[in-house]
Each structure stands twice: as C-alpha cells, then as structure tokens.
Amino acid sequence: MTITEDAFFDQPHLIEPIRQTMIKFAQLQLGDKHAAEDVVQEAMLGALKNKAQFQGESAFKTWIFAILKNKIIDLIRQRSKSIAISAFSEDDNANLDELFDQQGHWQVDEKPMPWGNPEQTAMDKEFWLVLDLCLENLPKKQAQLFMMREYLGLEVKDIEASMGLTMTNINVLLYRARLRLRECLENNWFKQGGL
After folding, report:
1. Are residues 74 and 91 in the same domain?
2. Which of 64, 90, 101, 165 has the fewest beta carbons under 10 Å from its own?
3. Mean pLDDT, the chain cut into blocks of 10 residues (195 residues total)
C-alpha cells in the first residue's frame, strides 16, 4: 500500500510506524535519543508545512526520509564536538582477525564469494531486512560512520569535523564496517540462497 501525504497526515495510525523507523535511523546517526526525536519532529513538521510540494514522483516515505536525511546532515555539520579515540570500543577488531591469516591473506573459508547480480538483489525486500540486521550488529560507531558516508553521503571532511576523528581513523573504521557487512551478508543472505 502506498501512503500519500494526505493519508499520512490525516490518519494518525499511519504516522507512528514511520515515526518509529525515523527515530531509529536518526538515533543511529546522532547517538542521542533526544536529538533524534527533535530532528524527526523537525522533519515531520517540515513535511507538513511543505506537503503541497510533494509531487508523488517517489513514495511518501522516501520523501519524508529525504527531509529527515537533510535535517540530520544539518545537525551533524553544526556539531563540533570531539570524540576521543578511546570512545571506540576495543571490540571493533573482534572477529576480524579470524578472517585473515598471519600474512594478511584471506582464510580459505572466509574468502569473499561472488554475489551474482547486485541489481536483482537490491530489488528484493528481504535483502534489505537482512542488511538492516547486519547494520544493527555492527559496533555502534562503525554503523554510524558507515551510514554517514554511504547513506547520508557526507564527505570525509564533514565526518572529521563532526566526530573529531582523523581521515585515517575514519577510513579504518569504514574498512572494518565493510568487512563485517560483507561477512554478515554472505553468511545470512548469499550462502542461505537469498539470490
């Protein structure tokens, strides 16, 4: 069922499931429940004020998430707090060492496997559920950085400014996140016959 902007704003029972998904996403990005609730409220008010601008070229949920995405990017750029490297947990390396041998080569049973047709996989709703679960199992900071870079499309310099990390730290954490996501998707989607 496609949700239109009129149905969304006129029927409160449609608001709550989307609002909860928005809060979950915003909280992952911002690391603060209160800030997440504030930015979601701003996004929903923005959508309400500008509902006449919604032209139906995309799903309403996609449109309202685009508004949320822009609100999150604005807030991230406004923040100038620093996070010490010690704030990253020691378990960020956990389980990554078992992927490689002493020379840094892939373990035989851990080598990446071909993923077939990525375009076809992207059309499968179940794939996105598995990806979401894989993201939830990443260490919090890795998931946050991955989503900032890959979903929000923030440049590394913007991430550096908002998180107080060096480019090297960001690249290492993104590399670790991608390794973990690859392994999780292979084990829970591709090897399970998700194609």
Report:
1. no
2. 90
3. 55 78 84 89 87 68 83 74 43 64 75 63 68 85 86 81 82 90 83 56
Among the three residues 60, 78, 96, which one is the final residue of a domain in this structure?
Answer: 78
- Measured CA to CA, the distance from residue 130 to residue 170 in angstroms comes to 25
The domain of 15 spans 5-78
Q: 175 and 155, same structural domain? A: yes
pTM of structure = 0.50
Residue 195 lies in a domain: no
Here the CATH number for the domain that contains residue 162 is: 1.10.10.10
Residue 147: what pLDDT? 85
Residue 156 in domain: yes
Long-range contacts of 81-86 (CB under 8 A, 24+ apart): 81/162, 81/164, 82/163, 82/164, 83/163, 83/164, 83/165, 84/164, 85/165, 85/169
Last residue of a domain, one of 78, 106, 129: 78
